[in-house]
User: Fold this.
Amino acid sequence: ACHIAAGMDWRGYKTKPCSVLYIAAEGLSGLAGRMKAWTQRHGILPDRLFIRPFPVGLTSEGAAIALAGRLTALPEIPRLIILDTLAANFGPGNENDARDMALALEGLRALGGQWLILCAHHSGHGDKTRSRGHSSLYAALDIELQVSRDDPLGPIEVKHTKCRDMDRMEPLYFNLETELLPWADEDGEPVNSAVLASAAP
Assistant:
C-alpha cells in the first residue's frame, strides 16, 4: 500500500501511483508504529495513503454502496482499497454461512466497482492451506495469495494459491526486520516496530 501510494517500485515491479484506502478494522494499536517504521526506513511519506479506522460492515444493507458513493466524491478516487481483515469488516452474520458470505461478496462488489479490492483474511483453524469461511469466497476470488511462515525464525513466504487469467508468480520471501523508532512509552521504554525486507528463500 505504501509503495503504491508513494509511486515506488516494489520487489522489482513497477507500480502505478494512485491513492490507496486502507480500511483498518483491527490492529490499530500497532499501525502508527508500522507507518513510522516504513517512512523512516524508506525516507518518504506515502501522502496518497488514507486510513479509515473503522469497518465497512459488508453484510449491512447499503453500507458498502454508501462508502463507494463517498469515495467517488473525493478529489482523487482511491484505486486500491485494502480491507484488514475480511472478518473484521464482515458485519452481522457468519462467514461460514452461504447466505451471509453471499451478502459480504455483494458488498465487496459494490465497494470495488472498477477499483482493486484486496482483503487480508485468515486461514482455517484446522486446515492452514485454505481461507476461513464458506467455499463461495474462494470461488469468487480472482487471485488468492497465501502468506505463511513455517519456521518462526525463518522467512515469510508469499505465494499464489489461485490466479485467474494469468500466470502464477514465483513465491516471494520476506524478513520482518526491527526498526528502531525515536519513541518511548510513559516509563521511558523504547517503542519500536518492524518493516518487511526482501529475503532469499
